[in-house]
Amino acid sequence: MTDKRIVIAGGHGQIAQHLTQVLTANGDRAVSLIRNSDHIDAVTALGALPQVIDLESASVDDVAAVLEGADAVVFAAGAGPDSGPERKDTVDRAGAVLLADAAEKAGVSRYVLISSFGAGEPVAEDLDAGWKAYIEAKTAAEDNVSARSGLHWTILRPGKLTDEDPTGSVSLTEPPLDPGEVTRADVAAVIAQLLDTGSAVHKTLMLTSGSKSIVSAVDALG
């Protein structure tokens, strides 16, 4: 199934850019939510329709307005590794919650949340403060989104992200899964396949590089 309208929060991020390219190649329409108007040309060049909106200051109504008519939303935003605990909360947690609120208001049921290995698990006290804040924010976002029966949510927890070329081969399963790496391009390809098939509704998935083709790995989820 193609010709879908997919809204990507954090549209200038690296996974989002890969996803835009995959969706565009498949005949779908990517709508990129970006905070910085300087990124308009970059996402447009990839085939996306840019929408400038700041998830840290926008209202539910603001976001719902740009979600109207969408077939799915993807939360790919992040405060970034150099941000402090406060922004990890306002972006990685609150941004994901805002997008879910807006999706429900706009009548968009399909929601994919990009999370991380480590989310949903106890956080060791000796962890780096920035990483601890990030994992706590992601866990809180997961808890909020997964409690929504009205959303056809999927939570995707990739392993350590790399910028290598896509491999097309992954390990994709409900927890647990041994830690590992995965390319950002493969993460994007998995998301595109999940959106295309409608698979893994109300499932939390772990993702690393592996031996199964992406199509086979998604098909095996049922």
From TrEMBL:
It holds the Pfam family NAD_binding_10. Residues 10-196 form the NAD(P)-binding domain. It comes from the Bacteria. This is SDR family oxidoreductase.
